[in-house]
Amino acid sequence: MPRMTPEQCDRPLSAGQVAVRSAVAVSTIHFYEAQGLIKSWRSAGNQRRYGRDVLRRVAVIKVAQRLGLPLATIRTAMDSLPGGRTPTASDWQRLSKEWRADLERRIAALKKLSRELDGCIGCGCLSLKICRLRNAWDHLSEEGSGPLLLDPPVNV
To answer: Domain range for residue 36?
Structure first.
């Protein structure tokens, strides 16, 4: 692949070029923009244009999504960058440290669930009334009948 000249490095990218370089659909680029994760401006021909720094922002967004982070968390992280700049290496270290802690909490919760699930399959009780997974220590009986869950929703 030929190297870019300095003049080419300053040229803005179209949504299609960002999509190709980032390996995402153009609609994804537009979605990220609508969600406030990336920014564009309009050319004289009313076409969206993006600075080349958007490629790094999209890469960070994709990594965060692979970690299972919600877009609101990703937006908060991007908004925490001074002046809305593209993440630097030190920014990435800070963000990845925060995200790693969240990821490790979710992994621990899934491992706990996995251990309990194995025990549930092993006991064979199939009783929703006494099941440790669905009604641990029968706390839900005080809440009334119906499909009640003891655990709060998991933030993913």
So the answer is: 1-87
